């Protein structure tokens, strides 16, 4: 939970007087995002690596943090798991082997601007290029915050025409940027046009707004999402993100009938321990959010300092499995570099299968035999 002291300090930094009602206004939060080095110097004890990161970010990838999320950062600890996600560091200048500008190969699978058609029956629709705050490991840092994506109203007709022509598409994931930064009216219009296409059965939105800007989750927004039967994929990476404000936002969504699943990115120093992941996933379940995917961090240029090894991820999933409820264990995936799509990764559990006999290994490393039925 944010505190009045933190809120008042941040308001002074952005040149405002603290007013509780203003603080709760999502548009006020967006207008007063912290974006400049000098603002963060007043808020945090920045390390030389962080200060250099800010200087570099001007030409590389923008910095923006909502006052709300800024109030959750540890001002003294540069290794704060929330701070690592949004404060740039000089390590972002390092280009490692395997780093890619477009790691998921989206640009090569985009038949019209704003549509990525990788899988046979579903597409990604990129609605806008702005977010409430910018994750330093962002897969789309080549697009997000760069101002190169034309407004959705100028691209929408072509996208809708494409979807109408491709009757094999039954599932649309709206992402960006963050679609929940659109006004209720614009979002309602977009969802209405998608729902007007008879073969589209399933509409999802991917958003980190509930984490960075829970004030945006209003009864009016929930009404729009419910009207169009939207599923919401949220993004949380650490237990400390699950504040009272987030709990209230999730309650609004869940009580409004919006199914909630979480996509978490495995990040070095943020959540790469059994306890950190267990705490996060248990906390999500308390908020009626199902842990859905645990992503191996995409090899975006300049993110090697935030990436773990795949073996680390496998070890963590192994430690979680059967040591907590299955609802709390997401699918560990790699988004195959170059456009191969999501590939589930798991420790080997089927250790032999021949002549109708399967040998399986459980969480205790014990082996068991399963026999196929006899024809």
TrEMBL record:
Which spans of this chain does the record mark as coiled coil?
none
Residues with the N6-(pyridoxal phosphate)lysine modification: 342
The EC number of this protein is 5.4.3.2
- EC primary class: isomerase
| Xref: SUPFAM superfamilies | Radical SAM enzymes (SSF102114)
**The keyword Iron-sulfur is annotated on this UniProt entry:** yes
GO terms assigned for molecular function:
4 iron, 4 sulfur cluster binding; L-lysine 2,3-aminomutase activity; metal ion binding
Q: Which parts of the sequence belong to the Radical SAM core domain? A: 117-328
InterPro entries, per this entry? Aldolase_TIM, LAM_C_dom, Lys_aminomutase/Glu_NH3_mut, Lysine_aminomutase, rSAM, rSAM_sf
Q: Which Pfam families match?
A: Fer4_12, LAM_C
**Keywords from the UniProt entry:** 4Fe-4S, Iron, Iron-sulfur, Isomerase, Metal-binding, Pyridoxal phosphate, S-adenosyl-L-methionine
The reactions it catalyses are: L-lysine = (3S)-3,6-diaminohexanoate
* Residues annotated to bind [4Fe-4S] cluster: 131, 135, 138
| Cofactor requirements of the protein | pyridoxal 5'-phosphate; [4Fe-4S] cluster
The family database entries (NCBIfam families) matched by this protein are listed as: KamA family radical SAM protein
The record's section on PANTHER family has: L-LYSINE 2,3-AMINOMUTASE (PTHR30538:SF1), LYSINE 2,3-AMINOMUTASE-RELATED (PTHR30538)
Instruction: Return the similarity comment.
Output: Belongs to the radical SAM superfamily. KamA family.
State the name under which the record lists this protein.
L-lysine 2,3-aminomutase
Organism per entry: Cylindrospermopsis raciborskii CENA303
